[in-house]
Amino acid sequence: MADIQGAVVLVTGANGGLGEEFVRQAVERGAAKVYAAARRPRPWPDARIVPVRLDVTDPPSVRAVAEEADDTTIVINNAGVLRSGSLVDGDLGNVRDQMETNFFGPLQVTRAFAPALRRSHGALVNVASALSWLAIGNGYSASKAALWSATDSIRLELAGDGVQVVGAYLAFTDTPMTPGDMPKNDPADVVSAIFDGVVAGEHEVLADDLTRSVRSSLAAPVHERYESLVAPPGGDGDR
Fold it and tell me: Which member of 35, 140, 169, 226 is catalytic?
């Protein structure tokens, strides 16, 4: 488990949405310093918040920030993108963009900050999604499923070094990435649950009821989890 009080926290994708809330709550919980990382970092009104320029898809950028912020004790891989288009017929560039940002980005950041986390016996948080376990027919689900798997592997690799690895999973949340009129989580509630999980030493945080329901459904046959696979009366069904 890791304490936020006195920690040095790095948040990727810090300019808005969940990232902004991670920065705000880290300071509220007594972090000594928060590196607020973004492609175009913004100014912050608190001297404990240090804006840093970071493109998680660019290895030199990741290495430079890891050198600048080598006192980091908690890394929050929050940066992500959502692009439209199906895997079969959509723009393959959009699929690659999501994999680069949502999977390879957190992996590159993790690799670069692993020495600092090992030294401090710190914590790593990977912000994934309920869509890690529920396909919606585009590259976003695929990228978040890859992050889920990688998070489990990284947890096993770093366990012997005393590094806590937390997979954070959430459904629709009121951020710019989730437009539309549907019930949404309050970002403050999601971030609070994730930080509580870090402090409690949890391996996973399931931030809402929908996420918990999707997670619990994984043992069911695939045709039961996706209504479109259920054959109409007289059909052959899912073979």
Answer: 140
Please write the tens of the pLDDT for every residue from 166-210.
Answer: 999 998 776 776 666 767 778 999 999 999 999 999 999 999 999
What predicted TM-score, i.e. pTM, was given to this entire model? 0.92
Q: Hey, what's the torsion of the CAs at 19, 97, 51, 109, to 10 degrees?
A: 90
- pLDDT tens-digit profile of 106-138? 999 999 999 999 999 999 999 999 999 999 878
Residue 2 inside a domain? The answer is no
Structural domains counted in the chain: 1
Q: What tokens does 160 get?
A: 């012997």
Instruction: Count the Cβ atoms, other than its own, within 10 Å of residue 231.
Output: 11
Sheet holding 123-127, edge to edge: 49-53, 33-38, 8-11, 74-77, 123-127, 164-169, 204-206
In a domain, 164, yes or no: yes
CA dist list (Å): 90 to 83, 86, 93, 129: 10, 5, 9, 21
How confident is the prediction for the chain on average, in pLDDT?
92
Per-residue confidence (pLDDT) for residue 48, from 0 to 100:
97
Residues 39/55, Cβ–Cβ less than 8 Å:
yes
10 membership: H or E segment, kind and range: strand 8-11
Active-site annotation holds for 169? no
CATH number of domain containing 23: 3.40.50.720
The Cα–Cα gap between 229 and 80 comes to 30
User: Residue 56 falls within a domain, yes or no?
Assistant: yes
